[in-house]
């Protein structure tokens, strides 16, 4: 039986870096961890301390990186357009949601499960496009 693929969302890593909130759960997770290029970009954008940069460096060294495809980028625009029509989100809110949509679509490409603590955003995305999702 093949192991499940796991992509941790930025929210899980941030919770762990700031408060060690998911430390035990991350180390006990069952499956093959893959990095989302989008998550790594978000982490690098906000990294200010040396320990944060080392954490990101170790992620990139120890787990393969998966990136959104051209099709994912186009589909993300369609999904965000639907979210706008159905929910009336502001352009700022749609911009905030865009990277989460790309993470979800990348995970879907590989049959991976996204593990996140950002319930609201990822459940909304999952209603638009089904993908493996686990909320912590």
Describe this structure in words.
Helix 6 (about 90-110) crosses helix 7. About 65% of the residues lie in helices and about 15% in strands. It has about 140 residues and is α/β, with parallel strands linked by helices. The protein contains 7 helices and 5 strands. It is globular, with a radius of gyration of 15 Å. It has a 5-stranded parallel sheet. It has one domain (about 5-135): Rossmann fold (3-Layer(aba) Sandwich), CATH 3.40.50.1010.
CATH class: Alpha Beta
Number of helices: 7
Find the structural class using helix and strand composition: alpha/beta
User: Numbering strands along the chain, what is their spatial order in the largest sheet?
Assistant: 3-2-1-4-5
Tally of discrete structural domains: 1
The CATH superfamily turns out to be 5'-nuclease
Shape: globular
List unreliable stretches of 5+ residues.
none
CATH topology: Rossmann fold
Percent helix range: 55-70%
Distance between the termini: 25 Å
Strand content: 5-15%
Number of strands: 5
